[in-house]
Write a structure and sequence with these properties.
With 399 residues, the protein is an alpha+beta fold. Among the domains are: 27-167, no CATH class; 197-244; 306-389, no CATH class. It is built from 16 helices and 14 strands. It has helices at residues 3-20, 29-52, 55-58, 64-72, 76-89, 93-100, 106-119, 128-137, 140-154, 156-167, 190-203, 215-232, 252-255, 274-281, 308-318, 357-364; strands at residues 171-176, 182-187, 248-249, 264-266, 271-272, 285-286, 289-292, 295-299, 303-304, 333-337, 352-356, 369-373, 376-380, 388-389. The strands form 6 sheets. It has a 3-stranded antiparallel sheet. β1 (171-176) and β2 form a beta hairpin. α2 crosses α5 (76-89), α4 (64-72) packs across α5 and α9 (140-154) packs across α10. The longest helix is centred in the first third of the chain and has 24 residues, at 29-52. The protein binds zinc ion (2 copies). Residues 321, 323, 326, 328, 355-356, 358-359 line the site of one zinc ion.
Length: 399
């Protein structure tokens, strides 16, 4: 860099310090941003010039992006972005002038420069005047979409190979933490991601005014509901010729919540609470195990806590979750024993009610009570005495 440049930079730094120390705080944000963006464009050209003369090689860096990133305290992505803009602005003189004058912002210019770079040998198809027109008229996100579209039209093969490269980055990790919770982290391809988001969004809607869950909690519940639904529908591929299911291991004494007995144990997981075990026992397959001196001497035939004929009758009677205002249909609901199965509650129609995943949990873990009153059900919150009637025609959260 020349001494003249360094002198100008010192003057500029002094001007910035003076500006930052100004007494009057209010400035026009549009003009302020335009000034910063035009500087960012100039910085990109400076970074590119340094790359051309190989300054990064002198300091032992393999790439100019890593050198800029380290020297200027930027991420590699940001540094690579400036280098791309700097390189493209050398030939996109109209775009460079529009950025310098504040006519278009840095992010819009960056979108145009990346498009031009992606086009490679087909760069001659880039119509600078037309693309600059789009940058003036559209927001940054709209312009990015236009650039993607233009890329697809001009270079379908390149677009395809980029999309395939993005697709190869898909991943999903599910790991269990020490407290039993599962951590989920990943990247989905555009089609799977859109399908997943659509399905989860539908299930994550707030369930009435009394639903106190925050959005992220509703999203997490929706993922669980989606997985349980898929398992319960029995349409998932069999594994080792068995339908996918969750195993619960426990003694009847544990289910009854008796003191001093070992807790229930969920497959691949930590022990679970008696209330949760009781919820799972509302609709599961049980096998009676006979023990003698801690040795298993007999395992009875596996039977469901609600027999298939009773289940069919219950589905016809309730048609979906019976909690007032709930929209879950029959296929998204499970039987709940009003008097718990472990406390001798029978698996017959008068003792059963259909509840969705969320409301079933609300009853067991959330302490709500279900009271049968004739042909209707009343749901009573744990800390209130106000009775709520089950849904009837047109009834919604009615007291
Ligand atoms: Zn239940
Ligand atoms: Zn419900």
């Amino acid at each position: 860099m020349s001494r003249e440049g360094e002198t100008s930079l010192s003057e500029f730094e002094a001007a910035v310090r003076k500006f930052l120390a100004r007494g009057e705080r209010s400035v026009d944000p549009k003009r302020y941003r335009a000034a910063i963006d035009s500087l960012d464009g100039d910085f990109s050209v400076v970074a590119r010039d340094a790359q051309k003369i190989g300054e990064h090689l002198v300091s032992g860096n393999i790439t100019a992006a890593s050198w800029i990133a380290r020297t200027c305290g930027m991420s590699i992505t940001s540094a690579a972005d400036r280098l791309c803009v700097g390189e493209q602005l050398e030939s996109l003189t109209k775009v460079a002038a529009a950025l310098a004058s504040g006519e278009v912002g840095y992010q819009s210019v960056s979108a145009l420069c990346h498009l031009r770079e992606q086009l490679g040998e087909k760069g001659c198809l880039f119509d600078e005047e037309e693309m600059l027109g789009f940058a003036r008229e559209h927001s940054v996100s709209e312009l990015r979409k236009i650039c993607n579209y233009a890329r697809h039209v001009a270079d379908p093969d390149g677009f395809f190979s980029d999309a395939e490269e993005s697709f190869s980055r898909r991943r999903l990790h599910i790991s269990q933490m020490l407290d039993g919770l599962f951590r989920v982290d990943g990247l989905l391809d555009p089609v799977s991601g859109a399908a997943f988001k659509t399905a989860v969004d539908v299930l994550a809607k707030r369930k009435g005014l009394e639903d106190e869950r925050i959005h992220s909690q509703r999203m997490a519940d929706a993922v669980g509901e989606l997985a349980l639904h898929a398992m319960e529908q029995g349409t998932l591929p069999r594994r080792h010729s068995v339908k996918p299911h969750i195993n619960l291991t426990m003694t009847l004494e544990a289910l009854k919540g008796e003191l001093g007995v070992p807790p229930a144990d969920l497959e691949l997981s930590l022990p679970i609470s008696t209330r949760t075990a009781e919820r799972l026992a509302c609709d599961c397959t049980m096998s009676r195990v006979l023990l003698a001196d801690s040795m298993v001497i007999d395992v009875g035939r596996a039977t469901r806590t609600v027999s298939p004929p009773t289940m069919r009758a219950l589905r016809v009677r309730d048609k979906g979750c019976r909690f007032p205002g709930c929209d879950r249909q029959v296929n998204w609901s499970n039987p709940h024993h009003i008097i718990a199965w472990s406390r001798g509650g029978p698996g017959n129609l008068p003792n059963l009610v259909l509840l969705c995943y969320y409301h079933h949990r609300l009853v067991h873990e959330g302490g709500w009570q279900v009271i049968k009153s004739g042909r209707e059900f009343r749901f009573m919150p744990p800390d209130r005495v106000v009775m709520r009637r089950a849904r009837g025609p047109g009834l919604r959260w009615a007291a």
